[in-house]
Structure formats: C-alpha cells, structure tokens
Protein: Factor of DNA methylation 1-5/IDN2 domain-containing protein
Amino acid sequence: MISTYNCAQEVIDEDDELLKNVKHRYGEEVYNAITTAVMELNEYNPSGRYPVQELWDFEERRRATIGEAIESLHKEKTYMESDTESLHMVKTLLESDIESLNNEKNKLNAEKFELVCDIESLDSEKIKLNAERFQLVCDIESLNWEKSVLGSNIESDKMEKSNLGRELQLFSQEKEKLQSDFESLKKEKSMVESDFCSLNEKKTILESEIESLNNVKTELLSDIKLLKRDKSEMETGFEFLKDAKNKLCSVIESLNKEKTTVASGVELLNKEKFILASEKIQLGTDVELLNQEKDRLRNGIETMNSKRTILENYIELLDDEKNKVGSVIELMDRKKTIMARDVELLNKEKLVLASEKIHDETAKQALELEIERLKGNLNVLKHMGGDEDEAFNKKMDEMSKNLEEKEGELDSLEDLNQALVVMQRKTNDELQEARIELIQGLREMSGRALIGVKRIGELDNKPFYDACKRKYGSDGVQATLMCTTWEEYLRDPNWHPYKIIKVGTRYQ
Structure:
C-alpha cells in the first residue's frame, strides 16, 4: 500500500485483468513477483517506472542509510581479514602436507631404489645360479659319459675276463688231457719197461718216441710254465680288474651319491628358482603397486600443487580485493568523515533553513495580515475622511508608507524563502551524490554483507522459469518471453494497477 495526500493509500488492484489472468494461468508465485516489482516501483520510482539502484538492508528488507552502509563495509573488511588469515593458515597446512608428501615420495623412491637394487642382485644371483646349474648339468653329462665309458670298459673287461676264463678252461682241459696222456704214457712206459726185454727191437723206436715225447714234455712243461705265468698274470690282472671294479663301484657309488646330491641340489635350485620366480612376480607386483602408488602420489601432488596454485591465486585475488576493499574503505572512511561532517552541517543548515522558513512563513503570514489590515484601514480612512483634513491626510501618508515598508519586507522574505529552497535542493543533491558514490563502491564488493545494492523494482525471473517448467516442461524461451513482456508492462506509464479504498472515515 502507498500513502497519498496523508489521508489515502494506494493498494494493488486485484481485479486488474492482467494480474487476474497471470495469477490464474501461472500461479501465486508469479503474481507475487509482479506485484512486488509494481509496489517497489510505485514506492521508490513512481515517475520513472524503471528499476533503480538503492542501498538496501537485506535482513530487514528496507532501505539502508549511508552510515549503515559504511558500517557494513567495516564488517566486510573484518570478515575479509579473518578469511585471509584462515586462508593463510590453510596455505600453511597445505604446504606442510605437500612437504610431508614430498618426504613420503622421497622415502618411497628410496625404497623403490632399494627394491630395484635387490631385484638386480637377485637377477645377478639368478644368473650365477643358472651358470652353476649349467656347469652342474655339464658335469653330470660328463660324469654320465665317463660312467658309460667305464661301463663299456667294464663290459669289455668282463668279456676279456670271460674269454680268459674260457681259454684257461681250455688250457686246463688240454692239461688234463696231457696229464691223462702222460699217465697213459707212463703206463705204456711201464709196460714198455716191463716188456723191455721182450721189446728190444722196439727200443730204438721207443727211445726216439720217448725222446720226442720228452721234447714234447719239455715243450709242454715250458707251455705249462708259460700257462702258469699267464695264469698268475691273469690272476694279477683279475685282481687288478677286481680292484678296478671295486674302485669303479666306489666311484659309481660316489657318483651316484654325487648324482643324488646334484639331483637334490638341482631340486633345491628348482625350488629356489620357483621361489625366486614367485618372489620376482611378487616383487613385480610390489613394483607395480609402488608405481601405482607413485602415480597416485604424483597425481595427488599435482592435484595439491594445482590446488595450491588455485589457493595462491585466490589468496592473491583476496589480497588484491582486500587491498582494493581497504583502499575503498579508507576512501569511504575519508568520504564518510567528510560526508558525515557535510551531512551534519547540511542537516544543521536544513534545520536552520526549516526553522527560518517556518519563521519566514510565519512572518510572511503576519506581514500579509498586517498589510491586509493596513489596506483595510487605509480604504476605510479614504472613505471616511476628506481632502481638507490635514491630519487625516498625514495619517493616510503614514499608513501608505508603512504599507510600502511591509510590502518591501514581504518581498525580501519571498527572496529569502526562494534562496532557502535553492540551498535545500543543493543539500539534497549533495546527499544524493554521496549515496550514488557509495552504491558504486558497494557494487564492486562481494555479496556477503547484509547491506548492499539492490535494483528496486526489478522483476524476479525465477518464478517465471519455475511456472513455465511446470506448465510447458523445460521451456526457457517461453519464460524469457514472459519476463520481457511483463518488464514492458512495468515500464508502461498507462498501466496503473492500483486502487484507492476508504476504511472508516479515511481513504486507504
């Protein structure tokens, strides 16, 4: 409701066709947004019908004074100083976190280097073990070859031994045969000797035969000696072969033991190889995990660095804004001091001017009454007196002169009143300039303060978008068209959605 002429108030005409139509089609929120803009325009800018910028107390939803705005600037400065201190603390904490992360990164790099060194040493030990394994395999193959050679030698020795045994058996058989022959010869000799006398004619033959047999015997004895020597040599060779066999058996046994040892060593090497392979796989997994952790830490450090850069930039912006706000506030303080002094002087002058204006108006009214009274008296005297009455004429001249003086005083009071009106307008213009400058300063600041700049009479777009979303779906074009249309309605001076009502004996 808008007060007019101290006895009536304008209210929104709910029967206006445009308002009724929009309330019916789009709901209460759109209607309230339009009526709020209409009432603000009618209250704060009724002649222009366009949004204006004003100092505004958003908590109490009213206009703010210049002093309240400057006090809000001081509070904003305090908030920004505390925010800057907290941001510096956050920056310090982030720097300590980054330093700890860098230390952890260096520690992980050292552990990674140790793991790489361990892997390299394990690889060198693995190469060494593979070389030893290859050497053992070569030694086993050479031992197997020597074993096969010894086996073939033993087989050949066994064959020679069996051949020698067969030859000895043959020699034994021949010896037995010779012995049997010798026995038979002995028998025959005995028979010959017994029959010597009777067989003298055969003596020569027998002697020759005996001589030949003796030769044969000698040869047989020499052969037997040779055979005995060969037998002893064979026995010696057999003993040597037996010793060699025993040695070979012991060697084979030791080789079997070595083979078992080597096999167990190879098995242990295989186990160690498997363990090393599993450890290598585990180390590979650990290295991969460490690389992932390293990448995560790198990404985290990059993120922290980016955040740190953003915070530093934000802190720089805040410092710049703080310096800017500080300079603005200092300027505002100086302007506030000057403006407060000027406002105080202007208010004093305004009070003086108002009192002088009231006094002048009172004096003017008194003078006007006095002039009217004098004019009335003068007219009465003109009608009552004659031209020959000298005293009467003198009194008329005095009254005319007094009337002229009063009219001169009235003219001077009119001039003084006009000068006071000019001074009052100048004071109001200076106050308006101070308000405009303060509005310009508050527009450049962040919107955390309770007192700021508001465009009075500006249409709120959100209810229109919400209503169009409910009615048409997600249609921003329709909402924009509606807002544009209603802004044109608000600027139209021919649209006057108000009415004046009477309550009791007064109009409202």
Observations:
- Strands lie at 2-4, 8-12, 52-57, 62-63, 451-456, 498-500, 502-503, 506-507.
- Helices lie at 17-26, 28-44, 66-194, 203-384, 390-443, 462-472, 476-491.
